[in-house]
């Protein structure tokens, strides 16, 4: 029951090769695995704990290196995997009590009250629930151009009035312009920090001051999906704003640094009354048990998170190096697990060319940035393959 039912949890190299073959990823993937293996040896030699590097979506057998969805290709903490394995037979009960345990753990970590925490299957339900909340509470959202679409597109889809403020010349958020766009009848302001797709990070003190002022007029929603990957973490987290009673929501996910996108777990921190009503709606049907168990183990695995931050930075620097060597403009100082660059060609053409080189990059664009594309970092071998492909496509 331990491992033979779930080959993707096997750290052992031969098994992984066999599994890659069995799902049809073929010789290219096996070659990637070999260089991954040598990287793992290097990390071991450097005293860093390592685990296997899972395929992002074992069930999508398109043979491409998947650098399109900002997943964390390094895979979850081994401790999280073990925690799930040991709980596989405990799935008969609903999870309310376990949700409460995780809420307490998150509350302790973030310095807020458990009743201010809403836990869901990934953070996307929070984003869409929040878009719905906007439509019922004044219907007006202010955000930036070139930001994550969950809330703005969701709100637009539901009929809200969304104002998109242009980025500053250096591609960071123009917080002053965003503040100037907020009026007395604005419902909410969405700030993604670090931002997807630009990766840029707002200065922590500036954002705190901004949120304190703006939240007097409209609720400020700060999406911190990638915050644990940033150099300034944890000094730059904004949970304290909720603890201090400001009209602010903080959103987090286990899909990114915790590498649990496939398991689905996310949470928001918000004023308690709102958390009660929103939590009731968003948690309808509960949160999946193995995600809760894995999430708690991963939160405790600080060593894994530190190593993950280092690994992601190493891979991100490779993509930055490639953009610089090729002379392609890119959004500077990215702090997530992705880089946003101007390829000089329409994004769909770039995606097609990269696909021909075996690399899948994001298949959509952001209005105003048609020649810009976002590339996620992968494992060392995957990022190297991407750099090679970039040299061909952008030569
Ligand atoms: C900024 C941001 N927020 C939220 C999400 C949603 O992630 P999930 O539903 O996996 O938590 C994503 C996914 O890419 C994201 O980039």
From TrEMBL:
Entry's Gene Ontology molecular function annotations: pyridoxal phosphate binding; transaminase activity
Cross-referenced InterPro entries: Aminotransferase_I/II_large (IPR004839), HistidinolP_aminotransfase (IPR050106), PyrdxlP-dep_Trfase (IPR015424), PyrdxlP-dep_Trfase_major (IPR015421), PyrdxlP-dep_Trfase_small (IPR015422), TAT_signal (IPR006311)
Keyword Methyltransferase: no
Domain Aminotransferase class I/classII large: 64-390
Protein's UniProt keywords contain Transferase: yes
Keywords: Aminotransferase, Pyridoxal phosphate, Transferase
Protein family membership: Belongs to the class-II pyridoxal-phosphate-dependent aminotransferase family. Histidinol-phosphate aminotransferase subfamily.
Protein name: Histidinol phosphate aminotransferase
Species: Alteromonas australica
